[in-house]
Amino acid sequence: MLKIGLTGGIGAGKSEVSRLFAARGAVIVDSDVIAREVVEPGTDGLAAVVAEFGPQVLREDGALDRPALGAVVFADPERLKALNAIVHPLVRTRSAELEASAAPDAVVVHDVPLLAENGLAPLYDLVVVVDAEDEVRIDRLVRLRGMTEEEARARMAAQATRADRLAVADLVIDNSGPLEGLSARVDEVWAQLAQRAQREQG
């Protein structure tokens, strides 16, 4: 099994690369998706969140009211720490389950937005960074996500710099150009990963 850490700054196209890897046979472990799953209605995770923050963080249908919870935790670092203490262990456990269920020769891609920021590179056999020039990313965030240029720059400034991410990269997928070229670049990287996974198994 080959454990890959996949990361990239906002607007770089990491989610698209993750989708392309999945289409080629990768087992995707997406920490954002899992973080939502572990607090769905009926889970121990949601019960723990309600016990900590009270029923006002629930919607009428019993699901988590993310904006209400966000208003509490992002205004108070201690409350955010309390939320992370509930959610992060559940995400780690679920990620480990998904990884354990993968085939011995699988390429397991962990989709981790804050890999560079949190110093997580050593957890993986290889780190793949999806990279795009800052101005390209700003253009995408404005055109495709409806942000103002100021909002886009602020979101990017809150993350690691390109240089920080590239410093932890074993492989870089350049996504500064049009989407059509991305698939070919992913093919190249996928061929290397699949080869390496077979070697690791052997």
Strand content: 5-15%
User: What global shape is seen?
Assistant: globular
N- and C-termini, Cα separation: 10 Å
Overall SS class: alpha/beta
Largest sheet data: 5 strands, parallel
H/E element order: EHEHHHHEEHHHEH
Number of helices: 9
Radius of gyration: 18 Å
In percent, how helical is the residue content? 40-55%
Q: Name the strands of the widest sheet in spatial order.
A: 2-3-1-4-5
The counted number of beta strands is 5
State the low-pLDDT regions, or none.
none
Return the average pLDDT rounded to an integer.
93
Question: What is the strand and helix layout of this fold?
Answer:
Elements (H helix, E strand, L loop, with lengths): L1 E7 L5 H10 L3 E4 H7 L6 H10 L12 H8 L3 H24 L6 E5 L14 E6 L2 H12 L3 H9 L4 H6 L3 E4 L5 H22 L1
Parallel strand pairs: 1-3, 1-4, 2-3, 4-5
Helix pairs in contact: 3-5, 6-7
Description:
With 202 residues, the protein is α/β, with parallel strands linked by helices. Helices cover 53% and strands 13% of the residues. It has 9 helices and 5 strands. Strands 2-3-1-4-5 form a 5-stranded parallel β-sheet, sandwiched between helices. Helix 3 runs antiparallel to helix 5 and helix 6 (134-145) packs across helix 7. The chain is globular and about 50 Å long. The mean pLDDT is 93.
In short:
With 202 residues, the chain is of the alpha/beta class. The chain is built from nine helices and five strands; from the N terminus they run E-H-E-H-H-H-H-E-E-H-H-H-E-H. The N and C termini lie close together (10 Å).
Task: Write a concise keyword list for the protein shown above.
single chain, 5-stranded parallel sheet, alpha/beta
